[in-house]
Amino acid sequence: DADVTQTPRNRITKTGKRIMLECSQTKGHDRMYWYRQDPGLGLRLIYYSFDVKDINKGEISDGYSVSRQAQAKFSLSLESAIPNQTALYFCATSEGDPGRYGYTFGSGTRLTVV
Amino acid sequence: KNEVEQSPQNLTAQEGEFITINCSYSVGISALHWLQQHPGGGIVSLFMLSSGKKKHGRLIATINIQEKHSSLHITASHPRDSAVYICAVRSYGATNKLIFGTGTLLAVQP
After folding, report:
1. Is the Cβ of B45 closer than 8 Å to some Cβ of chain A?
2. Of A13, B21, B34, B86, which is least packed with CB atoms within 10 Å of its CB?
3. Which residues does chain B have within 8 Å of residue A102's beta carbon, measured at their own beta carbons?
4. Mean of the pLDDT values across residues B6-28?
């Protein structure tokens, strides 16, 4: 099994629908992150969490919410999906300071909002 | 202007060629990472640098902190090297995350 598992891998949804992307990890890392990737843009941070009680907004959190259900699970929700949320979404974990330890990435979720 | 810029955005090479991908950044950093993203989407870490040079197989990464510049070199390139190469930095002003460049799409033709 992968260290960081994202589900689903692909999803097509309609405008206005609520959708949840899930991430689970077996690394035992406290730090978890959600990023989105768009063509021509670098990975942009949506939310990050350092433990179950510590949730922080990233640079593009509007329209998204998260839940840290356990150390191993970090879910991203789109409350009312819109077409410009069509993107590739990545979950990542880190053992500590990402400068020192870097990230372990999931395989990504390709989301299309029609 | 992005804090992390990569060049070129796209690169096509013939098998066997020596390849250089560049990364420039505008912030003070404590570390720089090079990552690889294959067409299937998964992202893996290649190097973490805070100074000098690192080598792994045919890949070499260098960093010049004073010039705020890093390069990733691939020697004897091979079609399996085709991927997106991403530079990311850990800045002193944003210690909880990495800041990513937009990536360089490399295609190595046989």
Report:
1. yes
2. A13
3. 33, 45, 48, 98
4. 96
